[in-house]
């Protein structure tokens, strides 16, 4: 793709805007609570859009449209599973987690919450969960750096190493400086950009082909299987794709948004906004890939880019169908998707290192100012490690994203779900669930005889372990049960 001045200008303005937001947030960051959770001050709109944007990475504008373009509508099962999982997470977990974390020593991180909720004097829960976060999220961050590098490489013709730093630098800067507020405010802008791109692009593609009926006719003529929801899939394959939705209950970067809401009363409105945004974005991504089939079938001379790599479908359609200024805005949406996810993952890693390890074990009486600066240093450290991992694009980092999603979903998902819904759950139950969930994912990935996504058996076995170990051990203390009951009563409005 040739580099055009409008695209360069658009990208530069967008990146400058994100960094500016970071410096504005810097002025509002007074203590570590502000840096990690924004002082629990997020309203409904910011909570909803930042949760959505931090969830949907470059996969939304590249991976999903590419899969639909290559294989047809059957690849949309994963979008259905994610939508169901996200709604259940908002409905069951979001409000309860917001209240429970405040009642349990104003917990700022998931390991912090687990330690307080289950009265873990040994700090085993805090250490194990912090280590799980660091391992999986460093891999996750590396995948985001690779995706950003690929965008700069293909859009501006940069060599990979230069693109690596260009794609990561702005995200690191505004996360480093502004912390959670910067990440959440930029997520809101980025979510708006993403939904604009994903609604506008498929409409223009359909118009370019000649309308909806003509588009469907061309797709059907190429292969009627493109419209078959079960093309090449059996029951296990469908369940595996739907199973992605289970991952939501255990994703620390999404759960952090719930914890940061200004009140659990904001969650209901945030859920409606967030789910509307998500459905429109996923629907738009599916439509880009689906109707892209019709466009390139009618214009085979323009299909060289997508023939080489189906994941370029959105990039190619933006470049071909829009003037360079609008194309620059649309392509900035891919960068927005990458940056929004990478920034919150960097922050969650930083909080695990600072709150759960540095303050928890090394400097219990550290000042707020010290913790903020240690948090910033940790953002930089994790970012540099992620860039080092991403330096060799052949190391298949992107292929590990589904592994990390399953790892978090199985290790943390059942612990969070039972932890906010069942007062009888104990520390041993939480430990057993976390270990069994993580080990099941690892072993199933290596030795699973059934081609079932490892998050499903991981989630099931972890849930069984939680119930068995909680019921066979000593019940939680009266104080712990009282705190849980008080939080639940507040959530229910009693």
TrEMBL record:
Q: Where in the cell is it found?
A: Cell inner membrane; Cell membrane
Q: Where are the transmembrane segments?
A: 6-26, 67-88, 124-152, 164-185, 192-212, 232-256, 277-296, 325-350, 371-391, 403-422, 429-449, 455-473
> Which keywords fit this entry according to its UniProt record?
Amino-acid transport, Cell inner membrane, Cell membrane, Ion transport, Membrane, Sodium, Sodium transport, Symport, Transmembrane, Transmembrane helix, Transport
PROSITE patterns, per the entry: NA_SOLUT_SYMP_1, NA_SOLUT_SYMP_2, NA_SOLUT_SYMP_3
Q: Which coarse location class applies to the principal site listed for this UniProt protein? A: membrane
Its job: Catalyzes the sodium-dependent uptake of extracellular L-proline.
Q: Which InterPro entries match?
A: Na/Glc_symporter_sf, Na/Pro_symporter, Na/solute_symporter, Na/solute_symporter_CS, Sodium:Solute_Symporter
The name under which this protein is listed is Sodium/proline symporter
Q: Which NCBIfam families match?
A: Na_Pro_sym, PRK15419.1, sss
The family note in this entry says:
Belongs to the sodium:solute symporter (SSF) (TC 2.A.21) family.
PANTHER family found in the cross-reference section:
SODIUM/PROLINE SYMPORTER-RELATED, SODIUM_PROLINE SYMPORTER
Q: Which reaction does it catalyse?
A: L-proline(in) + Na(+)(in) = L-proline(out) + Na(+)(out)
As recorded in Swiss-Prot or TrEMBL, the protein's gene is named putP
Question: What membrane topology term does the record carry?
Answer: Multi-pass membrane protein
């Amino acid at each position: 793709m040739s580099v055009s001045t409008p695209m360069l200008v658009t990208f530069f303005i967008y990146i400058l805007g994100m960094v500016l937001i970071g410096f504005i947030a810097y002025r509002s960051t007074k203590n570590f609570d502000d840096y990690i959770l924004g002082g629990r001050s997020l309203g409904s709109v910011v909570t909803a859009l930042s949760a959505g944007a931090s969830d949907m990475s470059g996969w939304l504008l590249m991976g999903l449209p590419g899969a639909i373009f290559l294989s047809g509508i059957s690849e949309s099962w994963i979008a259905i599973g994610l939508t169901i999982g996200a709604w259940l997470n908002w409905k069951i977990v979001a409000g309860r987690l917001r209240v429970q974390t405040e009642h349990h020593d104003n917990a700022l991180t998931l390991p912090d919450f687990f330690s307080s909720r289950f009265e873990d004097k040994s700090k085993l829960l805090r250490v194990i969960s912090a280590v799980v976060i660091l391992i999986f999220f460093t891999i996750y961050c590396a995948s985001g750096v690779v995706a950003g590098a690929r965008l700069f490489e293909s859009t501006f013709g940069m060599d990979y190493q230069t693109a690596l730093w260009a794609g990561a630098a702005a995200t690191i800067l505004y996360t480093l400086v502004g912390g959670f507020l910067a990440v959440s405010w930029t997520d809101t802008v980025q979510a708006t950009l993403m939904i604009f791109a994903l609604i506008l692009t498929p409409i223009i593609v359909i118009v370019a082909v000649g309308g909806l009926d003509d588009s469907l006719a061309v797709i059907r003529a190429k292969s009627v299987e493109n419209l078959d929801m079960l093309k090449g899939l059996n029951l296990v394959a469908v369940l595996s794709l739907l199973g992605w939705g289970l991952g939501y209950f255990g994703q620390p970067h999404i759960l952090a948004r719930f914890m940061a809401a200004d009140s659990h009363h904001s969650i209901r409105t945030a859920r409606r906004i967030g789910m509307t945004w998500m459905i429109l974005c996923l629907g738009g991504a599916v439509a880009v890939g689906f109707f892209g089939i019709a466009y390139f079938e009618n214009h085979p001379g323009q299909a060289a880019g997508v023939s080489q790599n189906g994941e370029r479908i959105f990039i190619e359609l933006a470049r071909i169908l829009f003037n360079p200024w609008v194309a620059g805005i649309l392509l900035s949406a891919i960068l927005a998707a990458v940056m929004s996810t990478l920034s919150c993952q960097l922050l969650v890693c930083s909080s695990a290192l600072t709150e759960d390890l540095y303050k928890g074990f090394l400097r219990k009486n550290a000042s707020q100012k010290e913790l903020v600066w240690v948090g910033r240093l940790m953002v930089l450290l994790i970012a540099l490690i992620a860039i080092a991992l991403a330096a060799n694009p052949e190391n298949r980092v992107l292929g590990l994203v589904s592994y990390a999603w399953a790892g978090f979903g199985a290790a943390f998902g059942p612990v969070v779900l039972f932890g906010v819904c069942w007062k009888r759950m104990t520390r041993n139950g939480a430990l057993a669930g976390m270990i069994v969930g993580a080990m099941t994912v690892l072993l199933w990935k290596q030795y699973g005889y059934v081609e079932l996504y490892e998050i499903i058996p991981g989630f099931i076995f972890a849930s069984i372990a939680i119930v068995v170990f909680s019921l066979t051990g000593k019940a939680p203390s009266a104080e712990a049960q009282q705190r849980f009951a008080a939080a639940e009563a507040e959530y229910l409005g009693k």
